Amino acid sequence: xxxxxxxxxxxxxxxxxxxxxxxxxxxxxxxxxxxxxxxxxxxxxxxxxxxxxxxxxxxxxxxxxxxxxxxxxxxxxxxxxxxxxxxxxxxxxxxxxxxxxxxxxxxxxxxxxxxxxxxxxxxxxxxxxxxxxxxxxxxxxxxxxxxxxxxxxxxxxxxxxxxxxxxxxxxxxxxxxxxxxxxxxxxxxxxxxxxxxxxxxxxxxxxxxxxxxxxxxxxxxxxxxxxxxxxxxxxxxxxxxxxxxxxxxxxxxxxxxxxxxxxxxxxxxxxxxxxxxxxxxxxxxxxxxxxxxxxxxxxxxxxxxxxxxxxxxxxxxxxxxxxxxxxxxxxxxxxxxxxxxxxxxxxxxxxxxxxxxxxxxxxxxxxxxxxxxxxxxxxxxxxxxxxxxxxxxxxxxxxxxxxxxxxxxxxxxxxxxxxxxxxxxxxxxxxxx
Length: 433
Prior knowledge:
The chain contains 16 helices and nine strands. By secondary structure, it is α/β, with parallel strands linked by helices.
């Protein structure tokens, strides 16, 4: 008589196979398909239900797909000199990346980071900056302990996403890591964001870098001649890129030694279209628009009292999508003819050649904002100071790692290595070029 294989035996075999396949990716497809057939056969002949058969088969097929198409080394687009620089100082960029296995699709990978990762403890000291036009920015500073401070001050300037600021968990993680490395971190909170008061009827957009220039001036006034490394997330990455392109053209980089851009779009027209797709409309577009409108509502009196506005603030606070927000507020406020002209001006693909400091962009192929087909890979290989690192999976500002993504993300690891490389060895790249 043939011995009956129990469900416990099957689960044990499945767990053991997972451990084996974790280290043998090339065999993953064959192993998982074989396991699927094996489990299905024994479950069918042990009088199990069709549901269990379908469930086990589906899991096996998904895991085969995951190991074959998502567990890979990142692709890097850059010139040879920059590649050698990264190989020497940023080894994580050439290591296999294991995205969290149970997060399916770019949208889930984007949200999993926000829901699971906690804010790390960071003590901020707030500085209010009055701008030349009467506007206000808030800078949140955090310094390393005396035991970690070594040598001259090095500054990490962090620029958050569209409605983010110093309280976001991705912000605190970068600032915490910067302090661990002995760097002083400062977060630039845009006008009206993160409890920053709006003192003029002027907000911010993806093309105006005057506020960033003002922040760099404040930094150098407090710490003369200190090197600055910029981390830009999403919109923050767009602004940092815009600044480098413009400063490269003028020959003035204001002491910036390097930039890490994360999940920043380079083709804003495509990003706008992507965010109008049904799933992105529900998961991102409506939410981000509501946050922008909320910030306006909190400062509505500034607009009500202002004279000569080129837009109707009552109409603006009724919008539901980012495209409507851009058309009704950003376009008239910053002098564009329509939002398409604004998106063209905000796109940086064709201006990357002007960047003259080490610049590394991180993007995921499944980013709902900027999927792989919208990334300017050719332009990165044509520019001597720029590099693009792409993963097949990671979502928007996600890049979660391990089974339960509560620890360091791929962004955290790349930041630690690339910032150190730029602070300590940035001249190596300039010497080659």
